[in-house]
Design goal:
- With 711 residues, the chain is mainly β.
- The chain has a domain of 59 residues.
- It contains 5 helices and 38 strands.
- The protein has a 26-stranded antiparallel β-barrel.
- The radius of gyration is 33 Å and the shape is globular.
- The two termini are 35 Å apart.
């Protein structure tokens, strides 16, 4: 917080200095203070005398007329108060509101002159929601940009429950909430400072930048003390409150120069992440049974769920030709290193891991004429991960507390993109794009732990080929059309929710008639399928069995919006949106022998209804009203399976259903008391309603009254 206060102080000091320099002393003021004016100094003879009698003819330099550039300055400010009325869990209804009444302020100044350009803007809603922005330019040679902002986000707590499965495999399952009734929230702050300097006599720019992201507050942490065996062992799922105090600092240094036909750019970036909150430490029971535990371990208070510190730095060199003309070329190379700076004391070796990242890029754009252009882009990224083969743990019940570690996966990725655009006339345009993404992975060999072999299950290579074709048209006045078709093929999908083939289509139409009414319609449909995903059961009681898990997904999105102005002072807009996708997939419910898999259907759908209106009653009074309602639901529907004599999929659908309705109303009235003074009242109502569970239901009402002025 102290660092943030110092940053704000520097921001205000910089603003004061810029204001002082932005309005220089006038020539009349300088003369009155005892200085010599330009006209007085010009009243001299040719030989430099003061023009006394007998000294010769008088030579007078008449000043040439100058084109004076007037400086335009605009200033505005407002002040008011926000009142909150809360009911139940209001944080779910207004996720990004700090739910406390407070005064509100805003102010801004904009000064545009020949040499000086200065903009300062700021707003304060509460101590956790504000922003300030300052920009200053002096003759294009000096550019300064400062920004600070903060946002609050309400977080939610999951309610734990103990499953109604007594003595599953002989183990007991418990649930413990260590912070019942706790409320969670996160505050995010960002500070930015950028400076650009141009050398007067050289085509060289110096760029300096600093960025800071700080997050503070608390969130819910869920962790487990879990094992399958032995008989009577306690397996507990915990929920606890975790303090958040994270800071990310980033510095940038760049130099760019224009060297004839080529521009060269060098940039250096360093980013540091610091987690200032302590790593959680809780008591875990001993799991010494070597016959049933993959990694036998000792009991005691152990660290868990660490968020390690890290550091990243990178050097970048770029070259590009002139950005105007028929041919434009560019190339860049980046070398970066990311380091893990873990501070664990229970585990040793995690702080000696790092990644080397190398990025290469090349662009080529060809525009031979005004109706045709083509571009080719290439990107390559190499990630070389350096990790240890073993680490040590104080709680590992192994010789020397040594544990083997899965080898880190190295990746090489190449991306090639080719595009073209053809515009034969003003009514139609054709665009095409091909994008190929090719990934190669190393260190995928099976990793052997004591008594079992494991593999990450990723393919050695994945090739993604995607092509799209777009048509843009203006067949009649006021009507614009867009149609797109895309096809994607993947040879080896990497994950269970990846697809092997995808077809996609989009249609967009907009129409405007005489500024009286208009409409926009959009529709997107996509079909995905994956027949290559498999999963093997654990080899605890019998040989492992491989199950095929095919997957199909269908997406349908649609939006329709209509606006109309029946009166010169009234505009109304109505819109409807549908977001829907459904997945049919085979799911492995039991990974132990005998395995059980079955078909499932998962549906996720949202509908958004909105109505907005703006009415200008007269020159003094403006009114606006906005209504919105969002209906969301999700259903998971598996086929009935009897997994065991005491277990089945019965009840999963009812237990996983979600149906919510979010409603909001916003109304605003602005009354112009005078030309420069305005009074306004803003009312907002937000409601969250879960039809199947009322745990997170809540309502928020906000009233804001303020007075604004400008000159």
């Amino acid at each position: 917080m102290i660092a943030h206060i110092k940053f704000v102080q520097r921001l205000l000091l910089a603003a004061l200095l810029v204001i002082v320099t932005a309005f220089p002393l006038r020539a009349e003021d300088a003369t009155a203070a005892g200085g010599n004016s330009a006209v007085g100094n010009s009243l001299l003879t040719e030989d430099g005398s003061d023009g006394g009698e007998g000294e010769g003819p008088l030579s007078v330099d008449v000043p040439l007329p100058e084109n004076k550039v007037e400086t335009h300055t605009f200033v505005g400010a407002s002040a008011g108060y926000r009142f909150f009325n809360l009911d139940k869990d209001a944080g779910r209804a207004a996720q990004y509101e700090y739910l406390h009444s407070s005064p509100v302020f805003s102010a801004g100044i904009n000064s545009l002159g020949m040499d000086h350009k200065f903009v300062l803007d700021g707003m304060y809603l509460n101590e956790d929601d504000y922003f300030g922005d300052l920009s200053y330019d002096y003759k294009g040679a000096y550019r300064l940009h400062l920004r600070t902002e903060s946002l609050f986000h309400n977080l939610f707590a999951e309610r734990l429950f103990a499953p109604d499965i007594p003595n599953l495999f002989g183990a007991n399952y418990l649930a413990r909430d260590l912070a019942p009734g706790a409320r969670y929230g996160l505050r995010s702050e960002q500070d930015l400072a950028e400076f650009r300097y141009k050398l007067n006599e050289y085509p060289v720019h110096l760029n300096l930048g600093y960025w800071r992201l700080a997050k503070s507050g608390n969130s819910q942490l869920i962790f487990a003390d879990h094992a399958f065996e032995p008989l009577g062992a306690n397996n507990t799922v915990y929920a606890a409150s975790r303090r958040i105090d994270r800071q990310t600092h980033e510095g940038n240094l760049g130099v760019d120069a224009h060297l004839g036909p080529v521009d060269i750019i060098y940039g250096f970036k360093i980013r540091q992440f610091d987690n200032r909150a302590d790593t959680p430490r809780d008591f875990f029971i001993a799991r010494p049974d070597t016959a049933n535990e993959f990694i036998p371990r000792l009991g005691g208070y152990q660290q868990h769920n660490e968020e390690p510190d890290s550091r990243y730095y990178a050097h970048t060199v770029k070259l590009h030709s002139s950005l105007t003309g028929g041919i434009v070329g560019a190339a860049s190379y980046t070398y970066g290193k990311r380091e893990n700076r873990s501070s664990l004391t229970d585990v040793g070796g995690a702080d000696r891991t790092s990644d080397i990242l190398q990025n290469v890029a090349g662009d080529f754009v060809y525009t031979p004429c005004m109706w045709f252009s083509a571009a080719l882009k290439y990107r390559r990224q190499d990630v070389d991960r350096n990790s240890l083969s073993t680490i040590t743990s104080l709680f590992a019940d192994t010789p020397g507390h040594v544990l083997s570690v899965r080898p880190a996966i190295d990746t090489d990725r190449d991306v090639v993109t080719a595009t073209f655009s053809v515009r034969p006339n003003a009514l139609v345009t054709f665009k095409g794009e091909y994008k190929g993404e090719f990934t190669q992975r190393e260190n995928l060999a099976s990793w052997v732990r004591p008594g079992i072999a494991s593999s990450p299950g990723l393919p050695e290579n994945t090739a993604v080929n995607r092509g799209t074709f777009t048509v843009l048209s203006r067949p009649v006045k006021g009507l614009r059309l867009k149609a797109l078709y895309g096809y994607t093929a993947v040879n080896h999908p990497a994950y269970g929710n990846s697809y092997g083939q995808k077809h996609e289509g989009q249609l967009l139409a907009t129409y405007t008639y005489l500024a009286r009414w208009g409409a926009t319609a959009y529709y997107r449909v996509a079909r995905e399928n994956n027949d290559q995903t498999t999963m093997a059961t654990l080899s605890l009681f019998a040989p492992s069995v491989v199950y095929e898990l095919p997957r199909q997904k269908r997406t349908n999105n649609a939006t329709l919006s209509v606006w109309v102005s029946p009166l010169d002072k009234l505009t109304m807009t109505a819109s409807y949106s549908l977001l829907r996708w459904k997945t049919d997939q085979s799911v492995l419910f039991s990974a132990t022998q005998p395995g059980s898999n079955g078909g499932t259907a998962y549906t996720n759908q949202s509908q958004i209804f909105s109505l907005n209106s703006v009415y200008r009653y007269n020159d003094k009074l403006d009114l606006s009203l906005a209504l919105q309602q969002i209906h969301s639901r999700s259903d998971f529907d598996p086929l009935f399976l009897a997994l065991s004599p005491t277990e089945s999929t019965l009840g999963i659908q009812d237990g996983s259903k979600v149906k919510t309705i979010e409603s909001s109303v916003s109304a605003r009235a602005d009354y112009h008391v005078t030309k420069n003074v305005t009074c306004s009242v803003d009312y907002s109502y937000r409601d969250y309603d879960n039809r199947y569970a009322s745990l997170y239901d809540g309502t928020v009402q906000i009233v804001t009254a303020q007075v604004s002025t400008k000159w």
